[in-house]
Amino acid sequence: MIEYISANLWQLWAVIAVLCLVVELSSGDFFLMCFAIGAAGASVASPFVGFYVQLIIFALLSVLCIIRVRPFALRYLNKSDKARPSNADAIIGKVGFVSETIESGRHGRVAVGGDDWKALAVNTETLPVGTRVKVISRESVVITVEKIDN
Question: Could you tell me which residues come within 8 angstroms of residue 89 by beta carbon, excluding any fewer than 6 positions away?
Fold first, then answer.
């Protein structure tokens, strides 16, 4: 087993690169992406150089990526705006249409941005199907809407 791994170190580097990318998907801080790039570089160099040179290539590419690529990625791909709404909260303020009548004090349905949400009217009026509404708030999977006067 050890002989196989030492003869095919490129595969080990490739697995490390893929694992770093998979974990990066859950964190989103572009730190592990740099190690994935370093591991990919070591994987490419593996058939041509020894193990210690591969380690040096991995370390150099990782550090260079942290210094040069990560700041670029953070600036342009991951806006550090702390007030950035989540996907669901991003619908607040959007306009939609009632898809199932919202009876006074009861739930109905509203289509907003291609999604259909369970909704309540902000005041106790009945909103028939087709009424234009604006999303005021969201509580779990229920949105609160108000009628927009045309």
Answer: 138
pLDDT of amino acid 43:
94
| 95-100 and 108-112 strand pairing | antiparallel
All structural domains of the chain: 2-77 (no CATH), 89-147 (2.40.50.140)
Residue 140 in this model has a pLDDT that exceeds 90: no
What is the reported pTM?
Answer: 0.52
Q: Which residue in 32, 53, 31, 29 sits closest to 41, CA to CA?
A: 53
Surface-to-core class of residue 47, CB atoms within 10 Å of its CB (0-12 exposed, 13-18 middle, 19+ buried): exposed
What confidence score (pLDDT) does residue 8 get? 84
Angstrom distance (rounded) from CA 46 to CA 9: 6
Bridge pairing between strands 132-139 and 142-147? antiparallel
